[in-house]
Amino acid sequence: MATKLIAPRTGEGVEELTVTNWLKEVGDSVEEMESILEIETDKVITEFPSPVAGVLLRIDIPAGEVVKVGESMGLVGNPGESLEETSPSEPEQKLASDTAEKLPTSSEDAIKQTSDQKEVRREAPAVTPVKTGEKSTFLSPLVRKMLDEHKLNPDLIPGTGSGGRITRQDVEQYLAAPRKEPQTVSEPMVEEKTKSEPGLKPTAIPTDMPGELIPHTSTRRQIAAHMVDSVQTSPRVLTVMEVDMTRILAHRRANKTKFAQDGVNLTLTAYFVSALAKALSNHKIVNATWTDEGIFVYSVVNVGLAVALGEGGLIVPVIKQVQNLSLMGIAIQINDLADRARNKKLKPDEVRGGTFTLTNHGTAGSLFAMPIINQPQLGILGTGAMQKRAIVVTDENGNDSIAIRPMVYLSYVFDHRAVDGESGDKFLAEVKEILENWS
């Protein structure tokens, strides 16, 4: 019998996925555990391996379409096999238990998951009918959560799902291009805010100018929605300091070969993350999030790293509990997460739970920038390109001289609701001190 490619549950609360790309066409041969398509959730694009060897007989969910967890994305079987004889027999049956929420990362995991899938037969959770105003809309738990978070009125969001159902992509598109109508049920003032702020109105496609339309990808829509939400949420302040990287470069030269012998590439990013871990531990108000009841201070330091993707866009994998890691441990994590991010091998949990974000915009030559805060965090640090510059240095006797030093600008953007100018400057000054006095 042909085997269905069942949309997996990739994390708690995830009820829908987006099929971003089919790596095989109908009629193509596929080996067991060979990647056959790519799926996306939480901006994580992950390759989905075929649980069996055979031929791709049918594509049920085209690229760009949304699929519910537990539904069939396609069929793999033998050439000429009847498409009616498939296993499992019912599309709505879930093939993953609650404890098997992640995609397989090895052939052993995939075989185990496939075995578990054949034994587990759970009904998909029913969507909840919600009546708002005069419109009755079926909302999945994920969509309901997004509407609640942004206080959106579902009556104002066009649904593209079955029967006019609102999907996750519909909400993201609405957030990226807010309408002129009031968006919320409980906050009518949002309408005036949207109208008064430039750049937030939907823009029509130009009809009087030559050019071409490049359709938005799912990732681009998510990034756009996240950026607009951040700008509307946080009153941002930028503070900039420059750092003399002389001691960092000396330490890296002395230890790079030793790290390489263990298969680890010692990058400058590892030093920045290490300095952040120490400074964030000492300035707890920075390592926090804003809530209506108060400022929630995290007891761990989880640093997100903005990683540019080759096809455009970026993703932010998170190094968990950095305060407990050595420089070697941080370097190992950076190498692993960055490599898997670019190769679409990240797990959904690896882009969640960040308490602060680091972005290295200097890789393209930028000196300093004003990065946008990764909500619901309270700050983000940008590192610029390192340049040799002539600066004034003072020796232990107080004598000044001009020296050429490798300098980097640090751009720290913080949420002024929770972090004051003095607190922000003291935090950044400690990051600078740690880097300049590295031993």
Question: Describe it for me?
Answer:
The chain is of the alpha+beta class. It has three domains: 2-123, OB fold (Dihydrolipoamide Acetyltransferase, E2P), CATH 2.40.50; 128-203 and 215-222, no CATH class; 236-436, Chloramphenicol acetyltransferase-like domain (Chloramphenicol Acetyltransferase), CATH 3.30.559. It contains nine helices and 24 strands. The protein has helices spanning 107-119, 141-150, 168-176, 190-196, 218-233, 246-261, 268-282, 327-342, 421-436; strands at 2-6, 16-22, 29-30, 35-41, 44-49, 54-59, 66-68, 72-77, 86-87, 93-94, 122-123, 128-132, 135-139, 236-244, 288-290, 295-297, 303-305, 307-308, 314-315, 318-319, 356-359, 379-383, 387-394, 400-415. The strands form seven sheets. Strands 14, 17, 20, 21, 22, 23 and 24 form a seven-stranded mixed sheet that branches. Strands 3-6-8-1-9 form a five-stranded mixed sheet, with no helix packed on it. The chain has a four-stranded antiparallel sheet with strand order 5-4-2-7, with no helix packed on it. α3 crosses α5, α7 packs across α8 (327-342) and α7 crosses α9 (421-436). The protein starts with a strand and ends with a helix. Residues 88-137 and 178-199 have low confidence and may be disordered.
